[in-house]
Amino acid sequence: AHRSPAVIIVGSGISGVVAAHRLYINGYRRLRVLEATGRSGGRIRSLAYGKGFIELGAQWIHGPSPNNPVYQLASQYSLLDPEALTKENQEEDGDGHLPLCSISHTNAGKRISQALVANITELYSAWLKQSQNVSKEECDPKSSVGGFIKQKIAEKLTEWDTATADTKLAFLNGLLNHECCISGTHSMDYVALCPYGEYTLLPGLDCTFPGGFESLVTQIKSALPNDTILFNKTVKTIHWNGAFQGSDARIYPVQVQCEDGDMFVADHVIVTVSLGFLKEQASGFLSPPLPVHKAQAIQNLGFGTINKIIMEFKEPFWDPDCITIQLVWEGESPLAQSKINMKQDWVKKIPGFFVLERPEKIGHLLCAFIAGQESEYMETLTDDEVLSSMTALLRQFTGNPNLPPPIRLIRTRWSSEPYTRGSYSHVAVGSSGKDVDNLAEPVPNYGAKPFQVLFAGEATHRTFYSTTHGALLSGRREAERLIKGENQENWQEKSTI
Ligand code: 6YU
User: Fold this and answer.
1) DSSP letters for 274-309
2) How far, in Å, from the CA of 223 to the mean position of ligand 1?
3) What are phi and psi of 207, to 5 degrees?
4) How far, in Å, from the CA of 461 to the mean position of ligand 1?
5) 392, 203 in Cβ contact below 8 A?
6) Distance, CA 269 to ligand 1 centroid (Å)?
7) CA of 119 to the centre of ligand 1 (A)
């Protein structure tokens, strides 16, 4: 039998698959990936649609440039369009925000002037940049990004004439709702200000995968032996710091217990489940439970929901050159606390629509993002209810009461997915980048014992949390931790016997 250490990886999202791949190419042969669902990819999930794909989870490579490992691999595997590979594209220094060509409609069916849009967008971008650059020394740990921006708005408001102030406020409200989608949170008031600048944007014009984001996971996986990943294998409890006998009569420190009763012994386990899942399991997922500082990191870090509502139309009713359509609710203001009636008002949280690329393959599709509690409420509605709300919304904003409804609607329900429980992490008020590092720390973290349980996944990357490249790097990091920590010569020689 091969004598390399037995490693179990919990979860076959991109971080899990990458960790398995890294270990495999370094000689590890006793590898098992246990995946609760029937597929790999986790929050990378592409759906075949028409002659192309739509993305239910991750959509863009954020900052496709040479230092982005997702971009590196995708280009190496030839998974991208030629435009995405040009030098101009890689150097483009967008701030990851609204593309220039956008149209803004109000709920009264009016268009907002481009001048106002440009003016307010510029102000907002500057404030957002400032919020990423507040000096740590002067920053109150209780302050939020939302609070910071609202203070800037309140200061500026005094300079605005009454004729346009309301529209400006309504537009800013939409920008903040959009920001909630980017940060994956119900409100920017939940996102901590002091560590906000630690999140790092890479240069490059965000791009998509013509063959679906999942094509990347499929490629990485293809280097692994077929039986490495076991599907529909939900891990229930990870017993560590123990002494468990394997079928080879050896004693292992870890035993992984699955929902179906199966047990696996291991020298090491890499946990890649989402922070949402960890929060829900509280202390029960590991036995003995995690040390207090790790349990607190799980509790304190933020994990919110964003969902997509994707609609196909027979004919586009939008300008084909436009990439986004922004929605502006007259009367809404970031400075006012409005009491909301969920049933009636949930759609007001939608900041706008993206026009999906490659209509020649997938047809004329719009994708709305929606964050937070309204997004979770949407998950409780039926497809028909969502469709009729969206039709009414579009009729109101275009001012066309006869606008045909979408011919097909697909929406995600990331908060209801039992093995995700939301979309992605943020550094919430009450937590800091140190919590991200604590979450990433392996256990046991004392003495000379080798690490038994290691942690990867999007939420464990201090500067790239919430992204696929952060998840990918975290999987590599934990694989390397084992590779570097292990006296490989021992088992690599024996393994040839
Ligand atoms: C990106 C993007 N993107 C949209 C939406 C979502 C996300 N992201 P996984 O969960 O994938 O894997 C864990 C596996 O474990 C999974 O398969 C489970 O089934 C399994 N599991 C769980 N419990 C188990 C158990 N008990 N037993 C066994 N198995 C179990 N990222 O790069 N570009 O456009 C988007 C977007 C709707 C939901 C995204 C995007 C996030 C990524 O999808 C995500 O980070 C990774 O896929 C996670 O991989 P993983 O391996 O860690 O976990 C300034 C500022 C700061 C704010 N951030 C700005 C960045 C904005 C992020 N972008 C989002 C935008 C979209 C549209």
Assistant:
1) -HHHHHHHTTTTEESPPPHHHHHHHHHSEEE-EEEE
2) 22
3) -135, 165
4) 12
5) no
6) 20
7) 34
Contact between 208 and 357 (Cβ < 8 Å): yes
Atom of ligand 1 nearest to the CA of 56: 37
Radius of gyration, CA atoms only, the chain: 24
The predicted complex's ipTM stands at 0.96
Residue pLDDT tens, the chain, 497 long? 468 999 999 999 999 999 999 999 999 999 999 999 999 999 999 999 999 999 999 999 999 999 999 999 999 999 999 988 888 778 776 554 445 456 777 888 888 888 999 999 999 999 999 999 998 888 999 999 999 999 999 999 999 999 899 999 999 999 999 999 999 999 999 999 999 999 999 999 999 999 999 999 999 999 999 999 999 999 999 999 999 999 999 999 999 999 999 999 999 999 999 999 999 997 789 999 999 999 999 999 999 999 999 999 999 999 877 888 999 999 999 999 878 899 999 999 999 999 999 999 999 999 999 999 999 999 999 999 999 999 999 999 999 999 999 999 999 999 999 999 999 999 999 999 999 999 999 999 877 678 999 999 999 999 999 999 999 999 999 999 999 987 555 565 444 43
**C-alpha 369 – ligand 1 centre gap (Å):** 15
Q: Whose CA is nearest to atom 17 of ligand 1?
A: 42
- The pocket around ligand 1, CB under 6 angstroms, is made up of 10-16, 34-37, 42-44, 57-60, 62, 182-183, 199, 234-235, 272-274, 277, 306, 308, 412, 414, 419-420, 423-424, 457-458, 466-468, 471
Residue nearest to atom 12 of ligand 1 (CA): 13
Distance CA 14, CA 43 (A): 8
Q: Residue of the nearest CA to atom 2 in ligand 1?
A: 58
The β-bridge partners of 311 are 366, 409
